[in-house]
Amino acid sequence: MSQTFYRKGFLALAVATALGASSFVQADLKIGVAGPMTGANAAFGEQYMKGAQAAADEINAKGGVNGEKIVLVAGDDACEPKQAVAVANRLADQDKVAAVVGHFCSSSTIPASEVYDEAGIIAITPGSTNPQVTERGLSAMFRMCGRDDQQGIVAGDYIVDVLKGKKVAVLHDKDTYGQGLADATKAQLTKRGVAPVLYEGLTRGEKDFSAVVTKIRSVGADVVYFGGLHPEAGPLVRQLREQGLTDVKFMSDDGIVTDELVTTAGGAKYVDGVLMTFGADPRMLPDSKAVVDAFRAKGTEPEGYTLYSYASIQALAAAFTGAKSNKGADAAAWLKANPVQTVMGKKEWDKKGDLKVSDYVVYQWDKDGKYHQLEKQK
Q1: Which residues of 325-358 are buried (b: 16+ CB within 10 A; e: fewer)?
Q2: What would the pLDDT profile of 128-170 be if each residue is shown by its tens digit?
Q3: Strand-by-strand arrangement of the 69-76 sheet
Q4: What distance in Å separates the CA atoms of residue 204 and residue 233, rounded to the nearest whole number?
């Protein structure tokens, strides 16, 4: 994976180390950016770093935060819970970060956030949607995204109201995120009178889904819903198509919001028509135009969670500035009491650290391997 977006932050840290206890070190506000920087889901870690670095550069150009420049410290958890805890401990104890943007996988964010809570570090996850991220009473854990129990309602309603699904197969990757979202969608389907004809778990890293495709065929499913990430979603949808189930609708979640879906599926023709839920496209907002234009001028498309990460840095900067303190507890208290204008519009949080407004909508992939937000169904 490209390291382009890490170099500025790492260079600043190297200079700080060389200068020892100089005024330069004292003028650094360290913020960790944690997620899968390597491994099957590294595309999301790259999105995180792209957005965070661009936001930090913009804020630093305007004077920084409370007179200090933001320096980013990358933490690679590879979407593995144990590695996420090790990353969290390193960020807290060794790097002495004041805040963290991360993690990505809910199964990583949940245990890592316990470390941050104990260390008094404020954290904002751009992409972890499992309800338990913010349901455990942690005082300084926030989201820049919605929750599974909100996303699942949108998916379930779309399958019933728009796809007119009668025989729905619900699959998941057995992970905290994937299974949690599949369960939320399954619950909404059941509430709407459509009990799934198949509920099946896959294994992360698996590539041969012929057995489950056979089961999907045997139950006569007209819709397949998959809770999980693109490394499994891609091969799954390809094998469905290759085995003749071309009329079966395929729907997934915000875990496939990356062009890497096309790669894992083996080509754009396999993702044509794939549906997914994700927050309303921030690239279409007036608030994001200048930032989006700047990314595109450099040849980068701010897809997926790029702007979510950008907005997370903005929120942290606003909280530290508003609280006139770089302490996590002070920033968290300020953030729960004040709205923040971000690249994604105005954001406000409740006492749990969840956004007060969730904006999940449905997207569809096309024959060129690009995704587009669909008009909201009435």
Answers
A1: bbebebbbbbbbeeebebbbbebebeebbbbeeb
A2: 999 999 999 999 999 999 999 999 999 999 999 999 999 999 9
A3: 69-76, 28-35, 99-101, 122-125, 141-143
A4: 10
